[in-house]
Amino acid sequence: MSNRPEILFPLFAELTKLDGVGPKMAKNFAKMGVERPRDLLFVLPHSLINRELITSVQDAQPPCVVTVEVVVGMHRPNAIKGRPYRVTVQDAKTSFQLVFFHAHKDWLNEQLPAGQRRVVSGKIELFDGVAQMVHPDFILRPQAADAIPSNEPVYPLTAGVTQKTMQKAMASALERAVDLPEWIAPSLTEKHGWPGWYSALKSAHAPEKPGDLARDVAPRQRLAYDEILAHQLTLALARAKMRRAKGIASLGNGHLRNKVLAVLPFKPTGAQLRSADEITGDMAEPVRMNRLLQGDVGSGKTLVALMALLAAVEAGGQGVMMAPTEILARQHLEGLQPLAEAAGVVLEILTGRDKSGERRRKLAALAAGDIQILVGTHAVFQKDVVFHDLRLAVIDEQHRFGVRQRMDLGAKGAAVDILVMTATPIPRSLALANYGDMDISLLDEKPPGRLPIETVLVSNTRFDQVVARLKAAIAEGRQAYWVCPLVGESELVEWAAAEERFKILRAALGEGVVGLVHGQLPAAEKDAAMARFVAGETKLLVATTVIEVGVDVPSASIMVIEQAEKFGLSQLHQLRGRVGRGADASTCLLMYAPPLGETAMRRLKVMRDTEDGFKIAEEDLQLRGAGDVLGMAQSGLPRFQIADLEVQADLMKIAQDDARLLLFEDPDMAGERGKAARVLLYLMEQDKAIRLISVG
Ligand code: ADP
Ligand code: MG
Q1: What pTM was computed for the model?
Q2: Which of 27, 122, 155, 578 has the smallest CB count inside 10 Å?
């Protein structure tokens, strides 16, 4: 990052420039992610030692740190090697002992001359009922006692870094820092009483009372806001760049939509219509759309997508919908093709499985504009796929699709409108953090008439009973999924486990009744297994999590999930969402391997007690943290050091508005505040964002 502002140079220098940090100590610091003074400054104290002078240790409740003035009494050197050296001292009310291991007699006599006054500060403990202070942190003459900080910050540490080293290095890092130009809107700093950056930093490192360590005190909140603002600025820059890119105005007239609605066996929900209108409204603008459709499992996102795709066709163009798996792409084809046909629209599928001749034919038809809607896997975005007039790209079920990938996709396509659909209800703060560059439509209403799903927790020790119940249910004509546990990272291992479970269940339930799908199966076999299950030939489908997203078989009404405790809550919610789609009351059995820890049990109980995806997501966030909920590695969410998304969700919204406004008023970030905001981006190492400004 050659353009880093000079004002930040001292903060990005070698750590060894700091007092008390040599090459070896720098290595120790690196273990806690601290490699430059900048990193160190954002390590904030987590507690505070009060070293204010008190009258007597008698007034304290050991164990605790006290500072008292004493008269030095008798020295008792260690008579036996290995025993401590003791010095009796007398404060205003009582006497106690200072204790030293491996101490030098001469040094002790010099530090603590008998009969003289000293101020000592350190941790008081009771040992056999007698108060003692082992190795005081400070021993000073009363007139020099000012050197004892009345409140001492305590920092998180790592092996090889002591509190003293930390404090010394921190003090010198703070010395190197200078005040930076203000990047926060004055209205905000004023409203919240936030100090400037440098002043906030100094205060955060110099707490005077326990309350100063709280997350919501002004200096700490400001530093948290800086982190969040940098992130939102990055997103806002990505968004602005997309919006600057020329868009196509795709104005539909509704004639195809109306034909589809006429043959649909149900009425769209209000939320479906509202979302479809928001989307087609965006599409009609000459600005590039970048919208997220968020809706719980089963809320009917596919129909909304179809209405948007039809608007693209109505406007004379083409639309494409990408699904994450082959199974889902095929399902979209099956569900959507009859509707498209009714409207006289040509809809085709393209996946990695198309044979070369077939593929060539489809690519030619696409290029000629003869295929109007294309569904498929990521194969639809390959280089040689050329559209005649692509207007809209829909990306389905991509909760693993992070900011990064969206930016890449945005860079690739021309002026195509983008609609991302996610079935993972995520808490609002995370939605803003992860999708802050997008506009959001919410499908917050489920199609009517859905029966609640009964969720039961069962120990895996009752495996045989579960199988017996399943057998009875199948005899009644019901269909079920059986999801095998997550065994490990490797698909191969998972596959082996699924095969194994398949054999056992087939033996128990009968030949021909049980099917199997997993990621390692040849494509044709996978399709055939799915098709047999959809047709009702097989009654039980044993599967790995390939069925997690989107699969829609309304007649299936039982979901068994093995080792449910190993899944994330939103994943369980997704899996459970595969049932409860038809006319029958559905059941979900969450099997677990006892004994379960308290948290694991609580998570499963959340699943048992609610079907509300947003509630589950909030709970998941509380229990696991933001990174796990989003799948940190893939998401564009940075690791916030100071900010805490779980409790500072409000800051996320403020920052989003602030960032968007800043770029609206100063798109090139060339004004005073814009320049200051650039400094913030460099400080927070948002290199991707910085490239967006310079390229943009
Ligand atoms: P998801 O949001 O999980 O992708 P789908 O689009 O797969 O949901 O829809 C789930 C099921 O609900 C499908 O069988 C679909 O046909 C049905 N469905 C969609 N919208 C409605 C509606 N308005 N009324 C009744 N059923 C609907
Ligand atoms: Mg779907």
Answers
A1: 0.67
A2: 27
Is 551 near ligand 1, meaning CB less than 6 Å away? Answer: no
Decide: 332 in ligand 1 pocket, CB within 6 A. no
Q: What is the extent of the structural domain holding 313?
A: 255-443
**Rounded distance from Cα 347 to ligand 1 centre (Å):** 19
Query: Of 610, 637, 657, which marks where a domain is finished?
Result: 610
Whichever domain contains 535, its CATH number is: 3.40.50.300
537 and 590 co-located in one domain:
yes
Contact 558, 476 (CB under 8 A): no
Within 8 A by CB and 6+ apart from 696, the residues are 237, 240, 241, 244, 668
Last residue of a domain, one of 543, 575, 610: 610
Q: Whose CA is nearest to atom 23 of ligand 1?
A: 268
Residue 615 falls inside a structural domain: no
Q: What is the number of the ligand closest to the CA of 443?
A: 1
Report helix, strand or coil for 429: helix
Q: Which ligand is located closest to the Cα atom of residue 304?
A: 1
Are 122 and 171 contained in the same domain? no
Task: State whether residue 585 is helix, strand or coil.
Answer: coil
User: pLDDT, tens digit, for every residue of 357-412?
Assistant: 999 999 999 999 999 999 998 888 787 888 999 999 998 866 555 555 555 555 54
Please tell me the predicted confidence (pLDDT) of residue 695.
44
Q: How far is Cα 483 from Cα 513, in angstroms, rounded to an integer?
A: 16
CA of residue 604 relative to chain centroid, distance:
20
**What is the Å distance from ligand 1's center to 455 Cα?**
21
240 lines ligand 1 (CB under 6 A): no
**575 and 427 part of one domain:** no
Q: Encode pLDDT of 17-71 as tens digits.
A: 999 999 999 999 999 989 999 999 999 999 999 899 999 999 999 899 999 999 9
Q: Which of 263, 269, 293, 302 to mutate to test the pocket of ligand 1 (most atoms within 8 A of CB)?
A: 302
* Residue ranges in the chain modelled with pLDDT below 70: 1-2, 397-414, 424-425, 428-429, 486-494, 546-550, 624-639, 688, 693-696
